[in-house]
Amino acid sequence: MKKIILIIACISTLLMTGCTEQNLTRSFGGNMTINLEPNEKLEEITWKEDELWYLTRPMRDDEEPETHSFKESSNFGIFEGTVTIAETR
User: Fold this and answer.
1) Global model pTM greater than 0.70
2) Which tens digit of pLDDT belongs to each residue from 44-80?
3) What single-letter DSSP state applies at residue 31?
4) Would residue 15 count as lying in a domain?
5) Domain carrying residue 81
6) Which of 5, 20, 44, 81 could form a disulfide with 55 if both were Cys (CB 3.0 to 4.6 A apart)?
7) CA-only gyration radius of the chain, Å
8) 79 contacts 31 by C-beta, under 8 angstroms
């Protein structure tokens, strides 16, 4: 019994080591935070297959930093993920 548990743990570890935070958030849910470079403003964000793409522009003097949440809503509420984008001055 201990051998089976050890084998399952090893296989799980090997599978998870190859995944990036983006892959885990996209495929299995969870939370991920991206801190933009200072004085950058988020314009758009989207997934293209397993890659997260986001469009930024320079922040204007009259704008304030904001925090954005990009959330997934699945049919059964399982494996829902959130990507938080934080802007800074």
Assistant:
1) no
2) 998 887 788 999 999 999 999 999 998 877 777 667 7
3) E
4) no
5) 21-86
6) 44
7) 18
8) no
